[in-house]
């Protein structure tokens, strides 16, 4: 049998690129690929743990994916509209997505005073919370995603001031958790707020004095999710790195960290304990980044390789 010789360069590629097979083939990605992108999604660190990928909806219209949550068998994604690399605000929208086929099942547009929609959380009883930089919105899901008049879908809003910034939000089963994105470690904190804040301060303003407690967070934190054991997972990223952290939710102490896609944003756990996230790398305003990965993706936490 005639053997084809493999050059040293090809051998190196096989050795180094083999673990990236999951993102090398565009057919592995559900949903609709935006026409402005050429080629497949880029390889990313820890992609052996990725078990599903979906092109984020709204990319061709300039929506930058941000917040992620899971509710009643569906993935919800918040995004803001901007194609300008220098403009990080725009009209906000929530997409409801089928996790099995990647199809968009519905969408809801937030009021014009929402400009970033960086975080999304499900708190039970059909209620979503959206975190904008300086405002929280309480949304009745049935009203938001029905046909016809949706004027009453937002049932309460609370403005944030002082040290409270709604870069992202999650729910630990009792309290809201509001996190701040910052490069300054002294200001990188997460605050636990009573869920009743929407009733006691509807239409008003709260600052950090309303918090039950706070914990330190990693720099450039982008998202949060509590797992079934009560640990707090935090994503942190920029155009040059992406990291997942598992923290002690009582102290904020880092228990483990994992390299992941650059531009990673919010986090959510589904009913099976699988971790969902999204990256903005390759969104229209960031289409010239070195990595292209504007995907919703599902991670098996047990397959992540820890940083050493």
Structural descriptors:
single chain; 308 residues; mainly beta; Lipocalin; globular; disordered N terminus
Describe this structure as you would to a colleague.
The structure is a single chain. This protein has 308 residues and is mainly β. It has one domain (19-303): Lipocalin, CATH 2.40.128.630. Helix content is 7%, strand content 39%. It has four helices and 21 strands. It has helices spanning 8-17, 21-24, 141-144, 197-200, and strands at residues 50-55, 63-71, 74-81, 92-97, 104-109, 119-122, 127-132, 135-140, 154-160, 168-171, 175-179, 189-194, 205-206, 213-216, 221-226, 232-237, 242-247, 254-259, 264-269, 275-279, 295-299. The strands form five sheets. A five-stranded mixed β-sheet has the order 6-7-8-9-13. Strands 1-21-20-19 form a four-stranded antiparallel β-sheet, with no helix packed on it. Strands 2-3-4-5 form a four-stranded antiparallel β-sheet, with no helix packed on it. Strand 15 (221-226) and strand 16 (232-237) form a beta hairpin. It is globular and about 50 Å long.
């Amino acid at each position: 049998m005639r053997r084809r010789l493999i050059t040293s360069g090809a051998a190196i590629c096989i050795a180094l690129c083999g673990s990236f097979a999951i993102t090398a083939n565009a057919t592995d990605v559900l949903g609709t690929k935006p026409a402005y992108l050429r080629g497949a999604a880029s390889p990313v660190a820890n992609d052996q743990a990725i078990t599903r990928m979906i092109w984020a909806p709204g990319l061709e219209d300039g929506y930058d994916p941000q917040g992620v949550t899971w509710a009643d068998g569906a993935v919800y994604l918040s995004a803001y509209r901007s194609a300008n690399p220098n403009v990080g605000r725009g009209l906000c929208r929530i997409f409801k997505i089928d996790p099995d086929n990647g199809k968009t099942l519905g969408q809801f547009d937030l009021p014009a005073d929402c400009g970033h929609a960086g975080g999304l959380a499900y708190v039970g009883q059909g209620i979503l919370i959206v975190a904008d930089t300086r405002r929280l919105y309480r949304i009745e899901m049935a009203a938001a995603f029905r046909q016809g008049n949706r004027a009453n879908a937002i049932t309460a809003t609370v403005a944030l001031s002082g040290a409270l910034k709604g870069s992202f939000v999650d729910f630990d089963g009792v309290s809201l958790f509001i996190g701040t994105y910052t490069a300054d470690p002294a200001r990188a904190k997460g605050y636990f707020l009573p869920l009743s804040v929407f009733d006691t301060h509807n239409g008003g303003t709260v600052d950090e004095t309303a918090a039950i407690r706070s914990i330190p967070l990693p720099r450039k934190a982008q998202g949060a999710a509590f797992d079934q054991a009560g640990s707090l997972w935090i994503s942190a990223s920029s155009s040059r790195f992406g990291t997942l952290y598992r923290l002690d939710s009582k102290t904020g102490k880092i228990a483990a960290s994992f390299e992941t896609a650059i531009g990673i944003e919010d986090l959510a756990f589904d009913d099976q304990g699988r971790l969902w996230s999204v990256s903005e790398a390759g969104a229209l305003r960031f289409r010239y980044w070195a990595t292209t990965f504007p995907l919703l993706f599902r991670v098996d936490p047990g397959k992540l390789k820890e940083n050493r």
